[in-house]
C-alpha cells in the first residue's frame, strides 16, 4: 500500500482567493500564448480551402494577384493562418 503525505496549510480565505486568481490568470496567459503560436501555423492548400470555404480557383487567383500571401517549401504551397485572419479583418 502506498502511503501519501498530507500537508495542512493555515491559510485565510483571502489568501486562498488570491492564489486561485493567480493560478487562473497564469493559465489564461498560457492559453493566450498558445493561441498566438497557433496563428503562425502554416496551412496547406486543402486546409486553407476548408478554412475559407472557397474554391481552389479563387484561392489561386488571390495568390497570383497578391491578395493573400503564400509561402513555398519545395513544391508545396502554404498559407499563414495569421495572414488569412489579417486579410479577413482588414479587407483592403
Automatic annotation (TrEMBL):
Domain of life of the source: Bacteria
Domain Helix-turn-helix: 42-85
Source organism (scientific name): Postechiella marina
SUPFAM superfamilies found in the cross-reference section: Putative DNA-binding domain
Protein name per its UniProtKB record: Helix-turn-helix domain-containing protein
Family annotation (InterPro entries): DNA-bd_dom_put_sf, HTH_17
